[in-house]
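From the pipeline queue, job 12 of 40. The input is one protein chain; the requested action is below.

Action: predict structure.
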Amino acid sequence: MRFLLFTLFCLMAGVAHAAPAYMSIIIDDLGQNSERDSRTLALPGPVTLAIMPDTPHATDFARQAHKAGRTVILHMPMDPATGPYAWHPGLPIEELARRLDAALLKVPFAAGINNHMGSRMTAQRDAMAWLMGNLQERELFFVDSRTSAATVAAAQAQAIGLAHVSRDVFLDDVRTPEAIAAQLRQGIELARKQGSAVLIGHPYPQTLEVLEREMPGLKRQGIELIELRQMIAERSNQAMPAHGRNGRYSNR
């Protein structure tokens, strides 16, 4: 009996001292559709809302989300994205600055930015270095969506100590509930393995359906859903193993 009690005590102590597994979820491409925006805002837990500047509801939804206590970020279009705010290689810094200023005006209360598309633009070292310096002056953070393995964005943020994180898992490259649920499970496993995971999804009906169903049960699976600012503090600007070595990004 004493042995059983001792074993139970050890197991309970192990659970009590187990390292927490953190997860942050970002939903991109918001501001286009009021119904989808509202459904995203109603998700349980601290979901970060990434709003595109060239959408009809960008400003109104940013204000609504901020009033609801959610973290708002600017979903900044970058090449191969197009439109009046999009960044492209070869544009002078003055034009990049003008487009960033205009985009931030469209998305008030933005605490930071992440890239919309950007597989070509985030590989431009000089432009990314300028962006990170500018964001530091504005006291905004950066999220590298990692739409390309060639990105140098997070490495440039790390080089100057800008608050940032990088995406680990895309939820909905395949837009079926089964595939999205599988990606969420991958995020859970990764969070348990490395202590944290940053997931990015989109306001597709299938994605929202899976999140509405699964998010309430994350805590029972040992996952703590946290604000993006807390995730940035938790990671302390370090690269995850898939993005570099010994906490430093590979593309330096």
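Job complete. The chain has one domain: 20-249.
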